[in-house]
Amino acid sequence: MKLAISPSLCSQTLLSIVSFIILPLGVTVDSYLDIARIVLRARRRPMGAKSILATAQKAEILPAHLFGKTQQKTLQARLSEDILRDREGSIFYRTEPGQYALKEFLNDPDYPAKWKIEFPARRRTRDLKRPDSLAIRRTMVASLENTSISMSEFSERLDGSGGLTVMQPKDMKKHGYCAIWTFSIVRRGSEVLSYRLGRYRDDRDTFANRRSIGFPGALAAEDVSLFSTDRLGVLDCAVGVLTQDLDLSLATFEDSAEQVPKIECVTALADLQGDLDLVIVLRWDSPDWFEPTTKRLSLNDPSWLKTSAPPNDINDFEPWSARLLGWLTAKGQAEFVHD
Where is the HTH HARE-type domain (predicted)? Predict the structure, then answer.
């Protein structure tokens, strides 16, 4: 389809919609990404999928074969997939959840600085561990394998132990250390949010394609800031994970103390090969407006799971979630109590 601008649009209206961009004869606009690129370049500002499509429709550059009831959902999915798949190679980036812009403007001095801050793409587990990852002696972790303790007790054990250091993830096992993870569980009353892990999100063999009830984040030295409320930056890491994986704004967690994730317990969890990690479990009580849908989160099969009874197939869950669900079911409530 050749780009055709409706004669009914006057020059001034056209200028305000697409900055009078005209493609060379023969160039086609036949994909959602083409449309996003053209509109974002013309408008020179971040836009959401709905606004991009509305602008394209007014300028009559929306091909007939792309019309449909789910085009907004499809465009957002296409943009998210492109950013996730190509990473640095993508021409798009997020400025905040649901808002997209073109990287070509990042070096433009006239482009507002507030629009040059890139909102991170959703994370893959293999991308989580950073060079400055926190590591803890395996002997300390092994003592927690069949139990859990409070964060305050864990802090006491750390004091003077010399068991905590910073290390490259690839060097941990051979030196007798384990990684430290946060694992944030989203709660709604007596239910917790579960979803299925795709291999892209988590390519560990015992985790991929299984269901999970948490969102993991590997702790690193950079998670601790002057404003951190705990010595390891646990809450900072957990909030970062939830903002990225659930497409939430930081304001969600800043409105009130009740919206800040709560540290539930510290434990040691193993995968099916027996490799241990120290896991700090957190609970986030979701606000009333939050509803997990594939449209919003780009998660596989999200659903709320009651913790009062064990799931029909516990083996369908990755190892960490299976262990934690067992504890929650035994307690008959969607929380851990230690203090």
Answer: 30-105
SS3 102: strand
Contact 175, 137 (CB under 8 A): no
pTM of the model: 0.63
DSSP 269-337: EE-TT--EEEEEEEEEE--TT----HHHH--EEEEEEESSS--S-GGGB-HHHHHHHHHHHHHTSSS--
Domains of the chain in sequence order: 11-115 (no CATH), 125-331 (3.90.79.10)
Give 294's pLDDT tier (boundaries 50, 70, 90): low
Dist. CA 130–CA 180, nearest whole Å: 12
Asked if residues 241 and 182 have their Cβ atoms less than 8 Å apart, the reply is yes
Do 232 and 180 meet the contact criterion of CB atoms below 8 Å apart? yes
Read off the pLDDT of residues 91-103 as tens digits, 9 standing for 90 and up: 999 888 789 999 9
Q: Name the residue with tokens 């941990």.
A: 172
Q: Annotate 189-258 with DSSP letters as a single string.
A: TTEEEEEEPPTTT---TTTTTSEES-EEEE-BGGG--TT-SSTT-HHHHHHHHHHHHTT--THHHHS-GG
Greater confidence, 277 or 231?
Answer: 277
In three-state secondary structure terms, 171 is helix
